[in-house]
């Protein structure tokens, strides 16, 4: 039997796992968007006034954040919106976390955006085998960190060489509908990178922990994509929530003032069955496709006719497929699907490989 304890605080979620019968030592994890001072507004009237302009404000707040983190003393700490552009703040975190026994790794967003990520693991729990940085190089200048760690005694007493992969990220905020596909692409890149790293260093299947601010709820396509890959939300597991319980918890209030639940600690059991990554990716995009068609209140026949465009035959051509993606705003702009991604989707949809989609293939890929 596994007992799980999970706690939620302002902007933060922490989760721990303990074997209550064998008294296996607890491994805990905290993810926390600490709101970079360059983004924290101090006045509703003057939107240009930021906390970064007042050293006493940001320094005091970040000391309090560190007080809380060190009080919780999680084995793993994943921070987002870490102000990498301020040397004093970086030194503060490295000093206090280092004095408390943590090894910390920071990564700034591309194009000198000022903020980024910090991931720290406690030396009492882990030995760091390797660390890698993943740069998405997309419109949001987002990044991710990968830490390959190994448990140390006494936490490795049940498995002398138990290794874990830890990922920390902060996905793009969906300011408009064209950015939904970007967030899905970012998660796809993370999973591709993890998969390629495992092959590169010849790793056996191992637990994977994905932490961060995902800027999307349980109702979104990113959530469904990760679930299709076998990941479970630790907070949902702790509270026995189902995928449909999106309304039962919140993690913070975003910059628009909306209450939302977008911070997750995802766990993957290495023994759990997983679909091929490319298959899950295609299904996730087709899920977005279906959502957009249904939002337009199209019946199955109307949707098929929509994809046929001006084609008189009883089938959908590749050109018609591409045109539909453009009309649904999934392509035709810098944030859209790439040519390779479009071709991969078409290959997945064209079941018999004859270069055309008939109504039966359309039903299989788009309506299920």
TrEMBL record:
> Keyword annotations for this protein?
Endonuclease, Hydrolase, Nuclease
List the transmembrane segments: none
The reply on keyword Transferase is no
Residue ranges of the EF-hand domain? 337-368
**Short name of one Pfam family:** Exo_endo_phos
Keyword Zinc-finger assigned: no
Any one GO molecular-function label of the UniProt entry: calcium ion binding
Q: Which PANTHER family match?
A: CARBON CATABOLITE REPRESSOR PROTEIN 4, FAMILY PROTEIN, PUTATIVE, EXPRESSED-RELATED
What name does the UniProt record give this protein? Endonuclease/exonuclease/phosphatase superfamily
Protein source organism: Arabidopsis thaliana x Arabidopsis arenosa
